Amino acid sequence: MQFRTPAPGLLLLITTGAFAQPATQWSDQATTAWYSAQENTFSISTPEELAGLSVLVAGGNNFAGKTINITSDLDLGAHLWTPIGPDYIEPFSGTVNGNNHVISNLYVVLPDEDWVGLFGMVTNSTLGNIRINGAYIRGYGTVGSLVGNASTNSSITDCHATGVDVVAGDFNVGGLAGSIMTNGTMLRCSASGTVTGSSQVGGLVGSPWDLTNITESWSAGTVSGDYLVGGLIGFCTFAFGPNRDNTLNNCYSRSNASATIGRVGGLYGGNQGALIINNCYATGTATGTELTGGFIGVSGGMSVNNSYWDTETSGHTTGIGGWEGPQTPQEITGKTTAELQAAEMVDVLNNGQVPAPWMIDPSVNDGYPAFESLTTSLAALPSPASDITIQPAVFNRAVQICSTAPLVACEVFSATGLLVRRHDLHGTSAALDLSDVAPGVYLLAIRTMEGITTRRAVKQ
Question: Strands, DSSP E only, in 183-217?
């Protein structure tokens, strides 16, 4: 499988009218009065000012050498968002410090476009302390809630997204970032929610490649696609030269991952090579028709040290689904839930590191190992209100919908975006009879008393 540069195309998507999403644009409300070409540091305190940043970058100002400080919480729910840095021609190249303020109700609906998120394309940039709560993102390729593509020499630090609802029709799709490339780093970041794409789909990042480092980061929720799907990372591919590995240090995934075809893993979907993983674990399921593993779906060459998967919650007795290159010994060990939640796992994962990043607390992360930074970085960041599952993801006649919040309705959309049917629902569990629909891919827009979530299902 080769890394593919996304190209425009048609996306199977739910129309925004079905969700009563905003129809107006933030770009029409933008103000740029805060900007002066003579200054290098700026403060943004309103959604209109943040929209002004998007307008300025689209107009050719890449903000190289300049810093943006966000100084208040920003609710973006009134209008549709246009990504900051719309493409590789007009990327954002500055620094943004979110100062741990929350950006909420982010709606980006660009189903035919690449580089989609709060930021679209960034290069030589620094994004830090940005928190997103509630992100409805629709794009074609290279899509994430925070950023579509973090390109050359870009860093993402202490950024978190909850209530993520990302759906894309193509490659490079992640809960936080679609892709990270060429000397890119991610430190102490997370994403939780629902991520759906075609290939190279991850709960945190879709595709890191060409010398990247992701450290002390995690994901939770559900991740689905056709192939190369991972609870944390979808896929990494070639490097531009030797010693340009993609490294994952001290990370974990609590996401359930599924693929209609295969190549799916609890932590990583797959890789062609140039992959190093240290001190990581996964607990989620990995389901598909081929090459599925509790830790990684398929490998073409890697070095994994001191890493684990939960054999009970994942349902997998093997950590590696298969190989596409020479099979080499790896330090990937299956553990029971009790073993992963035992106090001694902290010492095992810390593995002599100074400072030691891992801690364990029965009241945090369901008792699994977490990070010392977790309680401070996420203390005030709310979690998604409800969790929704559908079984089976590949069905013949019916699907069962289960929710932690009361169900209201479900709308079923075809691969062409056509509304096939609508069902009123009640309680927290319902069976949906789809025996008379044609075989193919469908999106289920499930409405509960706490909001709307999208799930993908395939009729055989």
Answer: 184-187, 190-196, 199-202, 205-209, 212-215
pLDDT tens profile 4-37? 333 322 222 333 333 457 889 999 999 999 999 9
Q: Where are the beta strands (DSSP E) in 203-356?
A: 205-209, 212-215, 218-230, 233-236, 246-249, 252-265, 268-271, 275-278, 281-282, 286-287, 290-293, 296-299, 302-305, 307-310, 320-323, 332-335
Q: What is the pLDDT of residues 126-152, one digit of tens each?
A: 999 999 999 999 999 999 999 999 999
**95-115: average pLDDT:** 95
Q: Which of 350, 332, 351 is nearest to 359 (CA)?
A: 350
**Residue 416: CATH number of its domain:** 2.60.40.1220
Domain count, the chain: 2
Q: Would you say residue 10 lies in a domain?
A: no
Query: Do 344 and 443 share a structural domain?
Result: no
413 pLDDT band, cuts 50/70/90, is low
Q: Are residues 362 and 392 in the same domain?
A: no
CA distance 321 to 71: 47
Whole-model pTM: value is 0.81
Q: Are residues 365 and 398 in the same domain?
A: no
Match 């001290």 to its residue by tokens: 250
Same domain? 288 vs 308? yes
On the question of a cis peptide bond just before residue 392, with omega within 30 degrees of 0, the verdict is yes
| C-alpha to C-alpha distance for 152 and 187, rounded to whole angstroms | 16
For residue 40 the two structure tokens come to: 């290098």
Helix (H/G/I), strand (E/B), else coil: 9: coil
- Within this chain, do residues 251 and 400 fall inside the same structural domain, yes or no? no
Q: Which range of residues forms the domain containing residue 393?
A: 388-459
Domain boundary among 350, 377, 404: 377
409 sits in which H/E element:
strand 407-413
